[in-house]
Description:
By secondary structure, the chain is an alpha/beta fold. The protein has helices spanning 26-37, 60-73, 91-98, 142-154, 183-193; strands at 2-6, 43-46, 77-80, 105-109, 112-117, 159-163, 196-201, 208-212, 215-219, 230-236, 241-247, 252-254. It has one domain (2-254): Purple Acid Phosphatase, chain A, domain 2 (4-Layer Sandwich), CATH 3.60.21. It has 5 helices and 12 strands. The strands form 2 sheets. A 6-stranded mixed sheet has the order 3-2-1-10-11-12, with helices on one face. The two termini are 15 Å apart.
Amino acid sequence: MRFLAVTDLHYTNLHDGANHLMHDLSLRKLREAIANGAAGCGCIVNLGDTAEGFDGCRPQAELLDEVCAALRDSGLAHHSIIGNHDTRMEKTAFYAHLEMPDRYYAFDCGGYRCLVLDACLNDENDPLPKSEIRWDDCRIDPGQIAWLCRELDKVPGQVVVFTHVPFMLERWETENPHLIRNRAALAEIFARSGKVRAVFSGHYHDGCFGVHGGVPYITFAAMGVGEENAYAVVDVTDDGVTVTGYGRQKSAQLP
């Protein structure tokens, strides 16, 4: 399985050079990533925080449509994930603009079953919040966990998991507000299944790599930070996971 990974475009017409928040460059960066990295990939995965909805800036819906057009123009299948800033718009509306089937879903690529999770909720009993959630208190709801278990049970081979909010940084023991709050229960399910080949996330803008319970956890660097681009071409095989990074995105080889 080979795919192009992009995340945290935070696309809008904001340009704050003093704080390295050059979100107005993100659409150009996305097109550059597609032009330079999409060849040979089976799909593009956009791991969330796609566009901002700041007051006084361009409408979030217009920005999402521009990103979706760039993804569609690649000629590849494209799969997006809800990020915490994306929840400024109602999730059901977000699906429509990014051509997603639902807030969590499955797809196939390169012989792997891919499971997309929605970790962008603060209240496990309210998966469809009416306003933007807090970025530092993200979790996955019980209904979604039940769906995940059913998917793992019925898939005969290995799966790859995608989520905006990460499960770990370099070490599992590290506590950080960027991490999924109920991550331990999910990680136990992953390890116990013996079927999760790797887990990919965004949200933590510097990016990082780690392994827990025999499962590689890869967090990609944010595209919308600074002038330099950040994206990756990822190869997943039975022998390992290879991340070929461009710009601010580091490369890595994981078991």
